[in-house]
Amino acid sequence: MHDDCPGHWYLCIIDFKHFDIQILDSLRSKSRDEFRFKSVKIMVEFCQTFFKLYDIGKDVFQFSIDWAPSIPTQDNGGTVECMSLDICRDSKMVI
C-alpha cells in the first residue's frame, strides 16, 4: 500500500488461515498510523466487495486488523522492497 509519505510503501497481509490482517510497516510513524489504518480498512471493504461479487465466501470484516509485531525498521526510504521480501520469507508467508 502507498500513502502520501514520499516513496514509502507498506505491506498489508490478509491471513485467511488465522483470520487476521497484518500491517507491516518498516517506517512506522505515530503521526501516520491512523491514516494507514484507515487505508487498510478501505482495502478490506474493497476485498469484501470482490469476495461477495465472485461468491468466494470469505468475510474479511470479521478479521482482526493490527500492526505486525517486531518487524525490522529501516533508516532510509530506499530499502523497503528488500525488507518486505525478507519479512515475508522469514515469517514463511506465501506471496
UniProtKB/TrEMBL annotation:
It comes from the Eukaryota. Keywords: Hydrolase, Protease. Residues 2-78 form the Ubiquitin-like protease family profile domain. GO terms for biological process: proteolysis. The keyword Hydrolase applies. Gene3D superfamilies: Adenoviral Proteinase, Chain A. SUPFAM superfamilies: Cysteine proteinases. GO terms for molecular function: cysteine-type peptidase activity. The keyword Transmembrane helix does not apply. Belongs to the peptidase C48 family. This is Ubiquitin-like protease family profile domain-containing protein. It comes from Vitis vinifera.
